[in-house]
């Protein structure tokens, strides 16, 4: 009963904050004409990598994980395929793999990582100026897949943007035809070296807290974001995840209803970033069950930055 009361209180706190503050910020009214090509629509020669507010997905390749209606509701964080997410406008992917090169979330596994790679390559073949941050990590409790860097380079080598601090200050046009910033986070294998085709874990950071309390997560996201440097002086990507996760001590364990407690407050979070003078620190914003409005919220702020409106 105490846990249910805490959740109810925190949901009310966010609802009241939204009612009092709204969701107005520079670029909030912008809607890309074509989400599949939204970077191209902003002008690749004008869009610097460190000006982008990257819409991302959490546990990106879980659309078919587990058994439908049995284990899937406890592990599925996205209902769309990787290709569908990219077409919708997602530009940061969070992929977890095990020693067998299968995508997994905890103890549950799903399709081979080849499915992810093929979806990424299909999307790249249909677009010309869209840059993707592809984070691949070995899931906790699993071993690194053998020869995985070699496999990734064989599959994606022509698209890979090599690890280089100067990338952050470059425009999309200056990076083309390279299209993928691939962050590889093994558990025990050597981390990618400077100048290699892959980026190490030092280049994609966050401050994850494991909670199902929406206001607690919202406030933690804001606190840790405020501790970062502005994007203009940062040489790594920083991610804020607009998610909450099921907890074992609560009767609701399915991902969708739990993460729904914070899902609709992405625009409120951006608004609060301006209110608390840390909007210049926002870079990657990720979510479960991504939708078009979430993408538009990020793209709108990106457009405002590119046009010098903030």
TrEMBL record:
InterPro entries: PI-PLC_domain (IPR051057), PLC-like_Pdiesterase_TIM-brl (IPR017946), PLipase_C_PInositol-sp_X_dom (IPR000909). It comes from the Eukaryota. Signal peptide: none annotated. Residues 45-185 form the Phosphatidylinositol-specific phospholipase C X domain. GO terms for biological process: lipid metabolic process. One of its GO terms (molecular function) is phosphoric diester hydrolase activity. SUPFAM superfamilies: PLC-like phosphodiesterases. This is Phosphatidylinositol-specific phospholipase C X domain-containing protein. It comes from Corchorus capsularis (Jute).
